[in-house]
Design goal:
The protein starts with a helix and ends with a helix. By secondary structure, it is α+β, with helices and mostly antiparallel strands. The protein is 30% helix and 21% strand.
Length: 149
């Protein structure tokens, strides 16, 4: 199993102009050249505990965390064939996944409607499959940043 610190270090060491921010019970990696934006543009987050509106992965289990990655909707569709509707506040997307499953790349239980995916406690093998998706998220964040300027 990959460790949270190893995933964060990978991002900070291999992606230019990114920063790490801790808030809301998670650590986010943001694209933010020269810290021009308050936070930056999300690339990924690592959530280590359940939140008020996001408890579908049972992250309060010992040593369980979830990596969350924002992708282009076309990539999301290529992985999962559909983009679900936005769930009601406190709800989860209507997709046939057990969002508590360890070491499986799957739609994000709350933000899949925005193209986000997740994986709980990725193994080294699954981590290798996540790396290109992180790079896509990084490139997507750069595009969003350019549009904001």
């Amino acid at each position: 199993m990959m460790k949270v610190d190893d995933i964060l270090s990978y991002c900070l060491d291999n992606l230019d102009d990114v920063t790490s921010v801790n808030s809301w019970g998670e650590t986010g990696i943001f694209y933010n050249p020269q810290h021009r934006l308050k936070r930056g543009i999300y690339i990924l987050t690592i959530k280590e505990k359940d939140g008020e509106n996001d408890f579908s992965s049972n992250l309060n289990r010992a040593d369980v965390y979830r990596v969350n990655i924002g992708l282009r909707k076309a990539t999301f569709l290529s992985l999962f064939d559909e983009i679900p509707k936005r769930p009601a506040k406190g709800g989860i997307v209507d997709m046939n996944y057990d969002f508590c499953t360890i070491d499986q790349i799957m739609p994000h239980p709350v933000y899949a409607w925005m193209g986000w995916i997740c994986c709980l406690n990725p193994s080294e093998k699954t981590w290798e499959a996540l790396k290109p998706l992180i790079l896509e998220s990084y490139e997507y964040a750069k595009e969003k940043y350019r549009k904001r300027k």
